[in-house]
Amino acid sequence: MSFMLSSALRNLPVSSAWAAGVFTRSLSCSSQFQSSAQTKTKKSLGKSGVKNVVVVEGVRIPFLQSGTTYADLMPHDLARAALQGLLTRTSVPRDVVDYIVYGTVIQEVKTSNVAREAALGAGFSDKTPAHTVTMACISSNQAMTTGVGMIAAGQCDVVVAGGVELMSDVPIRHSRKMRKTMLTLNRAKTLGQKLSLISKIRPDYFAPELPAVAEFSTSETMGHSADRLAAAFGISRLEQDEYALRSHTLAKRAQDEGLLQDVVSFKVPGKDTVTKDNGIRPSSLEQMGKLKPAFVKPYGTVTAANSSFLTDGASAMLIMSEEKALAMGYKPKAYLRDFVYVSQDPKDQLLLGPTYATPKVLEKAGLTLNDIDVFEFHEAFAGQILANLKAMDSDWFAQNYMGRKSKVGAPPLDKFNTWGGSLSLGHPFGATGCRLVITAAHRLKKEGGQFGLVAACAAGGQGHAMIVELYPQ
Q1: Which residues are catalytic?
Q2: Within a 13 Å sphere around the CA of 304, how many CA atoms are in the beta-carbon half?
Q3: Which of 41, 89, 297, 440 has the maximal Cβ count within 10 Å?
Q4: Are 152 and 135 a contacting pair, CB within 8 Å?
């Protein structure tokens, strides 16, 4: 980021003491772990002449670290399991579903439209259309909002949206030289032509092209971007470790107390039934401090402990028009209200999507930060979260980079990701958006709130934010 940005933002008030203080306050805050409170009803966000779109239910199979129990499966296997979990929990007739949309990032070449393959495998009618979308870490967000748009436009009444990612088995390609030779060889008609092509193959042709979590436009990995962002905003290694420890501690508590209601068990073929996420591992600041920098060596601050890990998993959500849901006898969990997508410079502002999206979605909905009872932000890196909080609380950043007169303000941490986040629960790229939304809905009911705000950054310098409103109880 520019020198002016770095110099100005290092002086903004995010200190180690502040991070430790909010960590303690968020752990001691008991409201999120107690029985449902009385909802503080504000004005609903329903709009005249616009269909209300509701979430009936959302589920996910357990999110697992890549290379573990799901390692021998394919993406559509995971997506199918999530869809079957949704069908079991809701008992929705398969032929009632008008459309299926799934998000994914690194596509398996054999099932490029994974939505269709998973739907057929889950027993949906072959007459039910399905398509797959990709928008990096907000792919299932895009799947959901695509469904919202189809319902609001009157094209559908019932949509299933979801996302899937299998990082245990990603496509590895031959080099371009080898691919070109093999394609040409396939078209050769005579033995002489084939032998001539084969004779041109050199050892370097066999070097594979390995996939990388990197920006095509900048060739920079997201971890490097996170390290630079943390440095620009003056976020220390200790602050990042403290935040990561907070995420794991809160996730473990939520898991132990049965609050992660969206998780459905999955009997993995040939293996045991998986019932819970396996990446939740509260440690200690001392142990976390021993890890070496993962990207910018030797002086970087982003490590394996304060980054989200490569994750396998899938999610699915049943979205309906309110009228259809009530006619079928369902009690919806939440309304899906206003949403926005943003994009900015993928070099210097790759991970600041929530900062740009939050004020826009609040203005669109006619709300302020104080109206939000629950915040669910995607945690790509601890440094990314803390940098966004710092940017959101900066008048200088708002005026110089966002063209705004004043800051939107930082969400209070006693309302922020209080059941853990991607750092601890895991982050299957294509599936996280649905987890954020259904968690917001469950937290609103548990805590007696009305409005939740979901936000996420994504590769390409993009971002998303959405308002979720609790369905009247």
Answers
A1: 137, 457
A2: 9
A3: 440
A4: no
Q: Which residues contact 208 (CB under 8 A, 6 or more apart)?
A: 172, 173, 174, 175
- Contact between residue 260 and residue 250 where contact means Cβ atoms under 8 Å apart: no
Measured distance CA(428)–CA(61) in Å, rounded: 11
| Helix (H) / strand (E) containing 452 | strand 451-458
Contact 115, 197 (CB under 8 A): no
Strands (E), 73-170: 99-103, 130-133, 158-165
CA atoms within 13 A on the CB side of 465: 21
Amino acid at site 354: P
Task: Please give the pLDDT value at position 40.
Answer: 56
Q: What are the distances in angstroms from CA 61 to CA 4, 170, 261, 368, 442? A: 45, 20, 11, 34, 17
Q: Phi first, then psi: what are they for 16, rounded to 5°?
A: -60, -40
Which two structure tokens, joined as six digits, stand for 162?
């979801």
Res 10: pLDDT:
56
Question: Would you state the structure tokens that stand for residue 88, as one six-digit string?
Answer: 């079991």
Give the pLDDT of residue 379: 98
- Looking at 270-318, list the stretches that DSSP marks H as alpha helix, in order from N- to C-terminal side: 285-288
3-state helix, strand, coil in the chain (%, to 5): 40, 20, 40
d(CA 104, CA 366): 32
3-state DSSP call for residue 470? strand
Which sequence spans correspond to the domains of the chain? Answer: 176-206
Q: How far is 130 from 275, CA to CA, in rounded Å?
A: 28
> Token pair for residue 48?
């005249």
What residues are paired with 376 via a beta bridge?
454
Q: Over the range 107-126, which residues count as b (16 or more CB within 10 Å of their CB) and which as e?
A: bbeebeebbbbbbebbebee
Helix axes 75-90, 114-121, angle to 10 degrees: 50
Identify the segments of the chain with pLDDT beneath 50.
Answer: 1-4, 14-37, 39
- For residue 287, the SS3 value is helix
Rounded Cα distance, 144 and 152, in Å: 12
Identify the pLDDT of residue 6. Answer: 56
Total residue count of the chain as it appears in this document: 473
pTM tops 0.85, yes or no: yes
**What's the rounded Cα separation, in Å, for the pair 373 and 235?**
26
Q: What is the pLDDT of residue 16?
A: 41
63 and 266 Cβ atoms separated by less than 8 Å: no
Q: Is the dihedral angle over the CA atoms 188, 191, 196, 199 positive or is it negative? A: positive
